[in-house]
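Checked the freezer inventory, then went back to the computational side. Two predictions to log before the end of the day. The first one is the construct we discussed on Monday; recording sequence and tokens without edits.
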Amino acid sequence: MNLFSEENLRFMKAALKEAMKAFENDEVPVGAVVVHNKQIIGKGYNQVETLKDPTAHAEMIAITAAANHIGNWRLNECDLYVTLEPCIMCSGAILNARINNLFFAEFDSKFGACGSLYNLPAENKYNHQVNVFSGLCAEESRSLLQEFFRNLRIIEKQNPQSYS
């Protein structure tokens, strides 16, 4: 039995397309889309290296785009689809934006804040609760991340001075 609908799958595939943009730009391949009334209103992919900005995570960019699109920072009627479990910063933004549902593909054992290292949405300490769903397209996301880091290790071995 599939826990996710065809619609959920379609939106996560859109997030994976965003992750591919990051991959093609030598960024950690994470993508995100914000959905309102079954329409994508915000997209983002990691641009930390490109923008030289530690806050330029896919989720942050997608949330900003969505808020600009609807003209309101409150995204309580919106869902967020992201290819990797959000970190503490992004989890905070998700809670602050009052995202309704969060769907993420792959858990992040090093920085995850929605079930791995931390579980901020489940703490019930905030004035807003977000519903969290994981595992949608996890294998696709995992494969893309593994390929990225495998390629990065090869580059680092060939040119160790540039990554110290």
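The second is the one RB wanted added to the comparison set:
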Amino acid sequence: MAPVLMRNLNKMYGDVHAVKDVNLEVRDKEFMVLVGPSGCGKTTTLRMVAGLESITSGDVMIGDKVVNSLPPMDRDIAMVFQNYALYPHMSVFDNMAFGLKMRRFTRPEIDQRVREAADILGIEKLLHRKPRQLSGGQRQRVALGRAIVRHPQVFLFDEPLSNLDAKLRVQMRVELKKIHDRLGTTAIYVTHDQVEAMTLGDRVVVMNDGVVQQVGEPLDLYNAPTNRFVAGFLGSPAMNFAGVHLIEESGSVLAVSDGIRLKLPQVIGQRLHSFVQNQVTLGIRPEDLRVGTGNGGDALFFSAVVEVVEQLGSQILLDVRVGSSTMVAAMEPTVTAQVRQQLHLTCDAERLHFFDRSSGKAI
């Protein structure tokens, strides 16, 4: 086990600046997740740590050693790819043992390590099978086992669950977390799936356009996003955004737009006072919206017209129009709503988010 440090890490492909000044410290035994949309630089960053991509500038340290010039085999890391990359002509045992044989481990040591990993992964009865005789989830376990037997300082995961169906992905997420807790090895995990990031990571790194946007524990990123990109990327369904104008009226700050007129509590108004008479972006998470009475009993409410009703069993998603804006409201399954019905939606003031219109930074 060892910490991983990335200092001023950059990657250029000709004129394309794929990774821009990434500075990250992955703590010893930590499970850190890099998440972001396709092309954000997360996989390139992981591959530079692994030694599969050259570093344009900056340093990667594993433990107390700078590994920039070391080949992958000398970095004491193990990587699990999206593609299982199993040898089809070898048994599960031989696939898991292959790396150890290449490093000239003794037969008893190989046998012990493979069987220990198989026990952790629950594949003891599959060791004699060939990859073609396995399901997708079983093949992924074999790929994990091949990494586990190495006893590396750092595990690197490059979207290892993306080839699995939805149900199996959930199951394997749980298994991965259990394995990490049991092994206590430093891990860096790359995914484009924000649900995976939130459920797996001790800390999450949100990237976009090669730049680290925010680093923190999952709930910190969810509750206090540093900018509009992070706010919109984390959460499913995504956060609703609407442009509003801040005005002052009778000593209170109001957020107004076509269809929205919210009188903000004094503590929030003070925070936004320097933006009065300016346009800002209002953010409301779908799960923070609920049906109000519309008779003045709710501190904050606005009218909305239902356009689409999505029945998901555990909740109902209402696609609504609020003036010229569209929003999604996640409701309890007991809520009844019909298309073209007018509702009064309300939310708690402390659950509102405001972002600077030009920079996108949270206010």
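For RB: The mean pLDDT is 91. The chain is about 25% helix and 35% strand. Let me know if you want it refolded.
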